[in-house]
Automatic annotation (TrEMBL), chain A:
Topological category with respect to the lipid bilayer: Multi-pass membrane protein
A Pfam match: COX3
Residue ranges annotated for the Heme-copper oxidase subunit III family profile domain, each copy included: 4-261
Protein name: Cytochrome c oxidase subunit 3
Protein's organism: Sinocyclocheilus anshuiensis
Locations listed in the record: Mitochondrion inner membrane
Family: Belongs to the cytochrome c oxidase subunit 3 family.
Keyword Translocase: yes
Transmembrane segments: 16-35, 41-58, 79-102, 129-147, 159-177, 197-220, 240-260
Gene: COX3
SUPFAM superfamilies in the cross-refs: Cytochrome c oxidase subunit III-like (SSF81452)
Amino acid sequence: MAHQAHAYHMVDPSPWPLTGAIAALLMTSGLAIWFHFHSTVLMTLGLILLLLTMYQWWRDIIREGTFQGHHTPPVQKGLRYGMILFITSEVFFFLGFFWAFYHSSLAPTPELGGCWPPTGITPLDPFEVPLLNTAVLLASGVTVTWAHHSIMEGERKQAIQSLTLTILLGLYFTALQATEYYEAPFTIADGVYGSTFFVATGFHGLHVIIGSTFLAVCLLRQVQYHFTSEHHFGFEAAAWYWHFVDVVWLFLYVSIYWWGS
Amino acid sequence: MAAASSSSTSRRVKASSAAVVPGSAKMAAIGRLSQKLLKSAALTQTRQLSAAVAHSEQAAKTWKILSFVVALPGVAVCMLNMYLRTQQHSHEQPEFISYSHLRIRSKRFPWGDGSKTLFHNPHVNALPDGYEQHDH
């Protein structure tokens, strides 16, 4: 039987990049079809295909790494680079929305009343739910760090407790934001204030949901003994992503909620 | 390891002084702000620690203590603060003025009658012509 003379991972052929690309096509064209022709079939198909792709692709990665041992140190290094580059790209994504916010708010046009917040807008009190949300995310940053050290020290029960606590805090944040969205006296259709507010916080909320899901998958894996004290990159990637989500919130809070009120 | 435990002691001292600040919302806000700064300072230190391979075996315990003594009580304080502040609110509907730069409907939404936003709340969200009639 032939074996490789290097430490890298030559991945077996896989259909998931293709199904992922098809899903992206169906979702984007499906969105346009929904807006213009009021049919959600294409978009829903795309969404289902996306979920199937994500589940199977990541399941395969777990098989290759945890069960087949393909994630040698050089391979893991590459995965680290990959995650860092991805998070960097997300930073630039949010930078765009912050640019839009500051562009509109630093020089408010006469149509808005020449002031920020615009005339007729009652902004949310930054010292009510938004402050609680800040405390919740900061606390979850502490608990996820507790989880990391627990994993490194082989403390299985503590790792499960701290990871669960982190996820619960993430869910609490999402629930609080959802009620804020419902209770807000302004909507996304309220000029540039509404647009910048809901697009920036909305994408952030989506990232909280993604991050919570990532952490939940890590919890399931921790329970099933996937992680060792030396090798648990999936968890580290989830923790990095979670800290990134926390930092974006801090910028949102200071810029939009506090300065912007 | 000595450095880690002495800095964690200083963290605990700082945390308790922030918790002791009493009274009005402004003072509480300053206390919370210092707690926030404290937490982000702690986070930075953690990231720097994580870069090194060797870890103090006390680290998980330290972060567990931080979680239950600083982080979760901080959340509880903010929950209390939120509850007290929302009690002081009036529950009246905000006045409706038909500004042209608000309640924009250039294109109908692709759901319902196309007029209501996704998180529409009839009590506080007026439609372009005013609040809906069957209001509470």
